Amino acid sequence: MPGASAVPPRPLLPLRKLALLFFPLALALQISIWTNPGWFNHDELQLLDRFVLGEWTRPPWTPLLETAGGGFHRPLAWNLEVLLLWAGGASPPLVHLAAALETALAGWLCLLLALRLGLSPLPSLLAGLLFACGPTAARATAWTMGIFDRSWTLFALASLCLLPWTEKGPRMGTGRALLVGLGLLGALLCKETAIVLLPLFLVLALALHRSGRVRGRATVVLAACLFALGLWFWRTRFSSLHVLAEGDSREFGYRVAFGSNLAANLFDYLAFPFALGSDSLANLRALAPFPARIAAAAAMLLAAFLLLTRRGPIEALGFAAAFALPLVPVLPLHKVEGQYLYPAGVGLALALGRLVRERGATAVLALLLSLVLVLQGQRILTSIREDGRTMAALLEDLGDLARRKAREGRLEIPVRIRAAEASRDWVLDRALVGRRQAGGVLLADLARIRPGESAPEGALLYLFTREGRLRPLP
User: Fold this and answer.
1) Could you say which of 34, 124, 298, 308 is the most buried, measured as most Cβ atoms within 10 Å of its Cβ?
2) Radius of gyration from C-alpha coordinates of the chain
């Protein structure tokens, strides 16, 4: 990472005062998350179904170091997720609060990393808040299943904070090197994307060793940890991911296609943080016209240009790499997703924190870009909260409908739902994916009908309103 000075500036604020500033501000800016009354997507609903229907009477723990048989294997983050849903699934705001706290903790680590890189307290505070409350963190925090990206980023930040970025203080010994290796293992147990950390930390270890900040034995220990982690990943995960990547591209969009996806996906990831016309990266191309996306990407490139001219090519390349490196594994996919930007937000937040230290027009431009990021983050979180409110109303009415059908002995009668114009019909689609129960009652035949489609004879017809409610149709 760039930007480490020989001697860090003397802190104007002790860490305790910084924490008393940071955490209330971070949670206040995330209020749309922990006051969200509903869920975001079908994933958490399908997991909750298994608890409600009694298929899971306790969280289904996955052994941390077992050999994966295929597909995803993210045992640490998975175990945390099912524990949260088991303990707080009856109250969505509690689960959302846990996500907000995790992101606030990651933002605090980003703040500490900024301090270790030589930034003064207030720019470091800004960097931590931009990471925790900006658009790059919004999707992964507001969606409970974003725990995979949140958790591996948390471990990565903790490991980065353990490195000796400045010459002040003792050199890094074997104990801290082992802690770094343990942190990287935690990241890999949360998501496969964390594999990008291994070459990064190898380069950092060698560079810090050459500067005299890491002892020779510690460098050997850390290199051995990285080699062991890479070998373990290759033997247990690579073949499964290879099969997944070659699967049907219509199945979740995980099939890779380097030639057709790299440039388009990278452009979308660059544009989205500043694309004020869009609150969803997956729909960015539909919601934001091409000139708007060009302007948004230009804002990101402006930050890189300012770093290049003010701080030199080493820092500019370093912060650019911090943004781009976490995206490397997902750039070839057939889809773009907001949660993938979560770890990339560290590089963007640190870059703007660094630029705020400059004087004159550079600092003003950096503050303006930071303001845009905060506004974009709030816009996304507000939209997702509205999705959650709509989902909560819909699930309440579905539960009432299912219980009423059960009392009347009409569970076998099909139910068809039309979406009203200007309704949040994507919420209806998410709620019905794999839906097997409502209000604790098994559902027999429930589906949406679209314009031009007809309902089965004798089906009960309902309208999904703009408020998320179900109204009977004649």
Assistant:
1) 124
2) 24
